[in-house]
Write a structure and sequence with these properties.
About 80% of the residues lie in helices and about 0% in strands. The protein is an all-alpha fold and about 475 residues long. Helix 24 runs parallel beside helix 26. The longest helix has 23 residues.
Length: about 475
């Protein structure tokens, strides 16, 4: 509105309010038209004088008792003051006078929702959408989608948005919203058909191409998803969400260099986010460029210093490079934030084991096992730690505990055999080795890996050879 129009409108309102005061005081020749009352009500509503607005609505309704717009205005004001039953009663009267006013249905919906009558609101709108067309029908479909969202009938939310797009494939609000609900409801195949049809009519709709890509991605068809996203960025080269999703699709395909290119594009186009830096760190991690991985993980920690998992990932890069002390430092940072993550204890135990701190390693292996008692890795590493440190009796005790808790997994029979050899109990050790070979001959490599020098013992070599021969015969 330009300055002249603003002043003109202001003067008109002043004049209307003067006529309104004269009307209320009963002065002669004071008459206001229906439209004048509506403008006065809107003025009081805009200035947040709700009481004056309701009073004006009452005067208007007395002057024009068959005016549906005035009744609807009053109902809207009553709704704002939480007089729901009174508002509903007035809307029922207005509906008798004019059932073709869309505001009537929107306000009745709001009243039903305020009274926690979601089904009434849904029933009302389901009937109303057949009474309207074009933009008004679209508005009601959005209202209906919100109602279904309110009482968690999410498939019907999707249905409403789908109806909007079937009638108007360029509706941006529906295009934005349906992408989320496609993913949430898992209706990717329907979304592919819908957006393919939209693209036929609107080939330059970047949102339709994006939604098509997201639907393919929901079905794990990552190559097709990338093709669709590439069309989206060809139409809108600053479409950061398309680059973001493309980056994720490339990660799923293990194409980490391509993913890095896309994610760096996201950083150019949008405000830096923790999740993007973390994803870049992950890509560099997979490419074994640990310095760059750490750089990006640290960038992520600057944005979210309370995310313990990021320090865990930094520690992982140091562990891959055998920089155990630096790894321990970052794991300590992770555990200061959250001590209850079992994987942190497992990683810390491995670092302590590598640096010869057996006691600290055992404490952390034990913490991991306490949290995940049926996890074989924790037991295996604890036993290896004790064995390599020369604590054979303790290692033997832990193999017995591991067997009991993991339902007697055969791997621990082999471990018992190795430890018994270390305790110079060779006859008993051979018996355990034979028991392991009977139960799970394929696990014999675990026996050898714990102490390769045992393969020099003739009794061990002969026993393993005998079971390999038997295994070959069975295969024949």
């Amino acid at each position: 509105m330009n300055e002249n129009s603003f002043h003109q409108n202001k003067n008109e309102i002043k004049e209307l309010l003067l006529h309104y005061r004269n009307f209320k005081s009963g002065k002669k020749f004071s008459y206001l038209e229906e439209e004048s009352f509506i403008r006065i009500i809107d003025h009081f509503d805009d200035t947040e004088d709700i009481a004056a607005a309701i009073e004006a609505a009452d005067y208007g309704a007395k002057q024009f008792p068959y005016s549906a717009p005035l009744l609807i205005k009053k109902a809207d004001l009553l709704l704002a003051t939480r007089k729901y039953d009174e508002a509903l009663e007035i809307l029922e009267k207005a509906e008798v006078l004019d059932s073709a006013d869309i505001d009537l249905y929107i306000l009745k919906t709001d009243v039903f929702l305020a009274l926690d009558l979601q089904q009434n609101a849904a029933d009302l709108l389901e009937d109303a959408i057949h009474l309207f067309a074009g933009a008004e029908r679209t508005e009601l479909l959005f209202e209906l989608a919100d109602v279904y969202d309110d009482y968690e009938d999410f498939d019907k939310v999707f249905n409403c948005l789908k109806m909007v797009l079937e009638e108007d494939g360029t509706n941006e609000e529906a295009l934005y919203k349906i992408c989320f609900w496609t993913d949430y409801t898992g209706r990717s195949e329907e979304s592919i058909k819908l957006h393919s049809a939209i693209i036929e009519d609107n080939p330059y709709s970047h949102l339709a191409w994006f939604n098509l890509g997201a639907a393919y991605q929901g079905l794990k068809l990552y190559e097709k998803a990338i093709d669709a996203y590439q069309y989206a960025v060809a139409i809108d080269e600053k479409f950061d969400y398309a680059y973001r999703n493309m980056g994720d699709a490339y990660i799923r395909l293990h194409r980490y260099k391509d993913a890095i290119e896309m994610l760096q594009k996201v950083l150019e186009l949008s405000i830096p986010e923790e999740v993007i830096f973390e994803a870049l760190g992950h890509c560099f991690d997979k490419l074994k460029n640990y310095a760059q991985a750490r750089f990006h993980y640290r960038k992520a920690t600057h944005l979210n210093p309370e995310d313990s998992h990021l320090y865990f990932k930094i520690a992982g890069t140091y562990m891959n490079e055998h920089h155990w002390k630096n790894a321990i430092k970052n794991l300590d940072s992770a555990m200061r934030i959250d001590r209850n993550v079992p994987d942190y204890h497992l990683a810390l135990a491995r670092c302590y084991m590598e640096t010869g701190k057996t006691k600290d390693a055992v404490i952390n292996f034990s913490a991991f096992i306490k949290a995940r008692p049926r996890n074989l890795s924790g037991w295996k590493e604890l036993i290896r730690c004790l064995y390599n440190a020369g604590f054979y009796s303790e290692a033997l005790e832990q193999t017995e505990n591991a067997q009991r808790i993991t339902n007697y997994k055969p791997i621990f029979i082999y471990y018992q055999a190795v430890i018994l050899f270390a305790l110079s109990k060779s006859k008993e050790a051979v018996l355990y080795l034979e028991a392991g070979l009977k139960q799970a001959p394929s696990l014999v490599s675990q026996f050898i890996s714990l102490n390769p020098s045992l393969f020099r013992l003739s009794a061990v070599v002969e026993l393993i050879a005998r079971y390999k021969t038997r295994s070959k015969r069975k295969k024949k």
